[in-house]
Write a structure and sequence with these properties.
The protein is of the alpha/beta class. Helix content is 22%, strand content 26%. The chain has a 7-stranded mixed sheet with strand order 1-7-6-2-5-4-3, with helices on one face. Helix 1 crosses helix 2. It is globular.
Length: 133
């Protein structure tokens, strides 16, 4: 894995915007990190990098936000079983040709495609993050 040290939210977002340029239609990216680590900030950057102008927010209560079919941003924190995710239709989006960013992916692990990319965000202090990719 490679590592990037971000010194601010802006740097995290900019790194993510550049990272987005390496992604291809259908990629599934797992975003790992504790609460408040910056997963949604990273998602905002990916969206910007994909040319999405809509405001990206955490899909905590919706489970998944769809941005023009280009980006599907999942938050599986409240998913209790893989079966619940299937009933909600969340797995359908893996094959729709957009980029899928999945937070709390461990809650739906058996449903994930075989080939996924991983981003791990570690909070160092209030502003700094180590991003492993």
């Amino acid at each position: 894995m490679h590592s990037f040290l971000s010194k601010s939210r802006e740097q995290t977002e900019e790194f993510a915007a550049q990272y987005a340029k390496t992604l291809r239609a259908g990629d599934v990216v797992l975003l790992d990190g504790d609460m408040g680590a910056g997963k949604t900030v990273f998602a905002k950057g990916v969206a910007r990098g994909l040319g999405i102008e809509e405001e990206v927010t955490s899909p905590t209560y919706a489970y998944m936000n769809d941005y023009d079919g280009k980006l599907f941003h999942y938050d599986c924190y409240r998913i209790e079983t893989p079966e619940q995710a299937e009933r909600l239709g969340l797995t359908d989006y893996f094959d729709m040709g957009g980029i899928c960013l999945v937070e709390w992916a461990q809650n739906i692990a058996p449903l994930l495609p075989k080939d996924v990319k991983r981003i791990q965000i570690k909070k160092i202090n209030e502003n700094e993050r180590e991003i492993l990719f």
